[in-house]
Amino acid sequence: MSKVQTATTVAELRAIISGWRREGARVAITPTMGALHEGHLSLVEVAKKHADRVVVSIFVNPTQFGHGEDFERYPRTLEQDLALLATVSADLAWTPDVAAMYPAGFDTTIKVGGPAKAGLDDAHRPGHFDGVATVVTKLLLQTGADVAVFGEKDYQQLQVIRQLARDLNIPAEIIGAPTRREADGLALSSRNRYLSAEERAKAPEIHRTLQDVAARMRAGASAAEATAAGVARLEQAGFVVDYLLARHALTLAPVSGVAEGPVRLLVAARLGATRLIDNTGV
């Protein structure tokens, strides 16, 4: 198995991609923060269906972490990540350090609204999506990618990026890839490794609860009734719930029931020190 080529500076990255362009290649990027798992690898597989060459960025972006969040302890497993990328034949790993991404004197950020102000993760992580939007814009401009693939697990993020690309006339096609799950339903996440054995046993309840809330809404319950039942169920299981809400799947605006759909249920809840997010369609 050949090793994945890497680039650590923008000049290196662009030189490699320019060579691909001269060959007429269509280029995709899959942005990640590393600590890769099967969910990330599935994004690469989706990207390969839409492009000739796939760049995977590995960068733990400090601007999307708030005060007291887990930036310092976020897992960094570069050698393991590169080995995993080789198994799915990714073409290039873009692995800048903070100085390469935010050089001395960097002083421009993007401020986002719309889905980024939906009262979901933005209500609990102020400034988070401004940081996401800034780094994603840089990645799209650095690579000039034709396609960018993001996981639906981070559903609000996906909608923020779609609006970002529309609003700023960024020509990359933004593709959402289905959430990959463990056999018991837990959405794959780099943060799952923080869970204790006891917490890991409880964690699938978050997905089961979403399924139950969706079933209640399809059976005629209002969004308020169904999500309240879901919150109570999660709290009974030991979660501390940040939110469990029904939103319009495209705009993330509040909805009162399935007639106002398409509807997406989104949840964020904590088990111990670990914050888990998930979502499902209704």
UniProtKB/TrEMBL annotation:
This is Pantothenate synthetase. Beta-alanine binds at Q64. It is an enzyme of class 6 (ligase). The reaction proceeds by a bi uni uni bi ping pong mechanism. The keyword Cytoplasm applies. It is found in: Cytoplasm. ATP binds at residues 33-40, 151-154, 188-191. Homodimer. InterPro entries: Cyt_trans-like (IPR004821), Pantoate_ligase (IPR003721), Pantoate_ligase_C (IPR042176), Rossmann-like_a/b/a_fold (IPR014729). The keyword ATP-binding applies. Keywords: ATP-binding, Cytoplasm, Ligase, Nucleotide-binding, Pantothenate biosynthesis. The active site is at H40 (proton donor). (R)-pantoate binds at Q64, Q157. Catalyzes the condensation of pantoate with beta-alanine in an ATP-dependent reaction via a pantoyl-adenylate intermediate. Belongs to the pantothenate synthetase family. GO terms for molecular function: pantoate-beta-alanine ligase activity.
